[in-house]
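Cast an eye over this sequence plus tokens and explain the fold to me:
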Amino acid sequence: MDDLRQKYIDAIANAADEGALEQLRLQAVGKKGEISLKMRELGKMTPEERQVAGPALNALKDEINSALAGKKAALADAALEERLRGEWLDVTLPVRPRRQGTIHPVSQVTEEVTAIFADMGFAVAEGPQIESDWYNFDALNIPPEHPARQEHDTFFMHRAEGDNRPPHVLRTHTSPVQIRAMQAQGAPIRVIAPGRVYRCDYDQTHTPMFHQVEGLAIDKDISMANLKWVLEEFCRAFFEIDEVELRFRASHFPFTEPSAEVDIRCSWDNGTLKLGEGDDWLEILGSGMVHPKVLAAGGIDPNEYQGFAFGVGIDRIAMLKYGIPDLRAFFDSDLRWLRHYGFAALDVPTLHAGLSR
């Protein structure tokens, strides 16, 4: 045993790497190692011999295992030291120049819109992008025969054969959020609902996915006059112009009665759009007084409360304000476009400091 001990202690001390150390472990204490074979011989010894040889072999095995563990730790420390020497960096050197990231115009305009309406007392409401047919259509007084409920205009979710659950869609507007907000909060209520919406359309001014913000205000004495004031104040703050003139044209939406398309006075000077002046009009949003059936679907008594709602495309007003010619470019992931139209990350829009700096 003394010879075995000296043999392996010296070999372990001189092992050059973990591979050599593993080979020594197998030779000494592996299943077929020399010490393991010696321990198998204990069964052939007399009880007196076993009492002497057993403890000695166990002590030898423990000593070899301790030597192996110690050498392994030493090799790991040496490897780490070598790696640290090879990967050393002078942290006092200047860093490589990097371009700063920019905020996407859609995100910027969403924050601008939120800041404006927050100043007028509107909270932000959110809802799921996959909606049931009831929330997206029925609760909003959209009849079954309405074109919006056809597959050429709406993305319907696939249903397995035999699935009797109500159909679900990718929401076509953020109006379902208004229903959910009314059900959760009741009246009076004042919220905006920004978010992604989906429709089967794609050209220079339409994309299958785009962004909307809708507003809802319900109380006992709200009228179209309040709607007109809110929209004028919004346009004045968002487009950062002092004079705003809006024109309300009678229209029809299933969820509002009466309904109105809203145009803003503008002019085209050598291909440049100027808002708030001129003899032309540009449609910017739809609005109206909330239909009694929609109030009832939201759990609000239409005989006691009334209110207004409006919806505007975030992408569209971003194009108008920042002169972006093609809606599809918003989703092309072109870094050159984003560097040109993007916003500094720390320029948070506020009314007192300016929305777009």
About this structure: Residues 102-344 form a domain with the BirA Bifunctional Protein; domain 2 fold (CATH 3.30.930.10). The CA atoms of residues 159 and 167 lie 7 Å apart. The mean pLDDT is 86.
